[in-house]
Amino acid sequence: MNAYSVVLKPAKVALILFALSVVIAFAAVAGLVRYRTEKEQSILKTAQQLATTRENIKKLTYDLDSINRLALQYKQLTQAGFIGEPDRDGWVQRLETLYRDTRLPPTLRYTLAPSQPLNPQAVPADAPTAHQNNVLHHGLAIELSGIHDGEFLDFMARLDSDWRTPYRVETCQIAREAEALTGLQIRCTVELYSLPEK
Amino acid sequence: MSMLLTLMARRLAIRDVILVMPSVHYLRILVIKEGAPVLTRCIHRYHEDNNAENDSDTNEILRTRQHLENHRIFEHDAAPPVLYLGDASVVTDHLTRAGLTLLPVPNAFLPDGEAGYLHPLFEYVISSPRGQLAPLQLRARHLAENIRHAAHLGVAASLLTFILLGQDDFRVLIALHGQDNTLRADLQLAEGQSQRLEGSISASGLDPALMRQATRFAALEMNAAPTPESLFQFTAAAIADQPQVRIKSLTFRFPKQGERYCQGHSVIELPLTDRKIDLSSLSGSKPSGADAGEETDIPPRYTELQFTILLTETLSAATQIEIRKRISAALKAKDGVQLMEDPAAFSLINTLKGGIGMDTTQAENLWCMSIPWTSHSSGVMP
User: Fold this and answer.
1) Which CATH superfamily is domain B2-134 in?
2) Any bridge partners for residue B245, and if so which?
3) For B49-60, how does the pLDDT look when each residue is reduced to its tens digit (9 = 90+)?
4) In chain B, what are the domain boundaries?
5) ipTM score here?
6) Closest alpha carbon within chain B to A185
7) Among candidates B295, B253, B256, which has minimal Cα distance to B277?
8) CB contact burial A86-106 (16+ within 10 A = b; e otherwise)
9) Which residues of A touch B190 (CB under 8 A)?
10) How near does any CA of chain B get to the CA of A116, in Å?
C-alpha cells in the first residue's frame, strides 16, 4: 500500500461522495440550463404553432364567413355560367332565341371571338387587377340595324333578365341611319366572362 | 527532524555525536559523523513506567552504538559522545557504565535557555497528528480526517453551488412549465376549432377563394360598369330641356388603363376619397394576408361617352350656340363628368376641327367626355 492509499483509503467514502456531489451538481446545473433552453424552445415552438393555428382559424373563419355571405351571389354567378367551363354555344343560342322572341327585324349579326385570359400573366394577389387572374373574356361583336331606341333598350333589358350569361357591354356605336324612320345602326362589343374552377 | 538536529549540532560545533531526543511517545536517535547525519532512529516508547523507559532509552542508545560498531561507522574505542536532549540524570549512570561519554546539554537547550522552546516544538511535531513528523498512523488518520472534512465541505459547497446556480433556472422552469401547459391547452383548443372550421368549409363543398374572386370580379367588372341604358338615360337627360334636339350618334367605350380619351385627352384624377369602389358588402373582416388584393385601392374607372346631336328644325346660329351651351352646362353639372370635347366652349381653349368639303356641323356638335364609374351598389349613373 503506498502512502497515498494510507491517507486516502479512510476518506474514500467522503471523497466518493464529494466526487459524486460535484458530478451531480455539475450535471444538475448543466441539465437545468439545457432543460430550460429546451423548454424555452419548446414553448417558442408551441407559441408559433398556436400563432399559426390562430392565423389559420382567422383565415378559416373568414373563409366560412365568405361562404355564408357570398353564397347567394356565387350561386347566381354559377347559374349565369360564370364559374366553370364557358358555355359558348349556349350563350349564342340563347342570344338568338332572345332576339327572335323580341320579334325585331332579323338584322342581328354576331361574332364570338375565341376566349382570351384577361391577365395573360397572373399578377400578384395584392395587385389591383388580381381579381382578373384566370378570368377568360370572350368578345362578342353584335351588329343590329333597323331598330328603334326603345326596341334596343327592350332588347338590352331582356338580355339583362333572361340571357343568363355573365357579360358587360364594352363598347357601343349607335347611329341613326340616313332615313330616320328606318331606325338605328348599332354595333356593340359585349364581353362575356368565364372563370374556370381551380 | 534529523536535518534540524544536524544543523543544531553544527551550530554547536559538534562534529561526531550520538544525539538523543526523548519525547513522550518516541525516542529519536541521530548519529552525526563529521557533521553529517549517518543514522537516524525513531523508537516508540511503550512503557508507562519512567524507569523502564529510561532503561529502554539506554538500551536503545547502546544498541545504536553496537550497530555503529558492527557497521564500522565508529570503532568501539572511538564511540562518539552522547548528547541527551532531556533530563540526562536518569540515563547518566547507565551510559557511563557502558563507557559512553555524556555531553552536557548546551545552555541554549536547557528548558530556560534561549532555544528551550524547541523542545515543545519538537515534541509537537513528532507527537501531534498535525505535526509533519507524527507517527504514520496518526498522520494518516489526521490527513484522512482533513480530507474527509474537506470532502464534506466540498459536498456542501457543491450543493450550495447547485442551489445558487440552479435556483434561477429552476424558478424559470417552473414558470415555463405553467406557460407550456397553458399554451398546449390553448393550442389544443385552437386545433379543435380549426378542425371544426375546416370540416364546415369542406362540408359546404365550396372554394372560398374562388367565391371571393368571382363575386369581386362581378362587382368590379360587371356590376360597376355602366349599362347602355344608364348611358342613354344620361344623354337623354342632357338634352331633355331641348325639344328641338335629337341624338344623332352615340358611342361609348371603357378605355383601358393608360388609354387616351376623346382622341388624345387624359382624365384628371378625382380626389382619392372618391376613388374607391365600395366593396364593404363583399369583404367582411379579413385576416391579414388573405386575398390582399381586396384591400387594394382600385384605380378609378371611366367611361368615354361621345354623342352628336341633330336639330329637328332650322334654327338661327345664335339659337344653336345657346342650345349647345345649355347641353354643355347640363353635362358639366353632372358629378364627375369631365367634358373633353365641347362645341360650346370658347374657341381659344377648345379644340378646333374643320376642313374643306367636310360636314362641319358634325364636328361642331360633338360632345366627348369621361364619366366615372359608380359604386356597384348604387348602380346608377351620376
Assistant:
1) ATPase, nucleotide binding domain (3.30.420.40)
2) B311
3) 555 656 788 889
4) 2-134, 137-205, 222-372
5) 0.85
6) B249
7) B295
8) bbbeebbebbeebbeeeebee
9) 50, 53-54, 57
10) 16
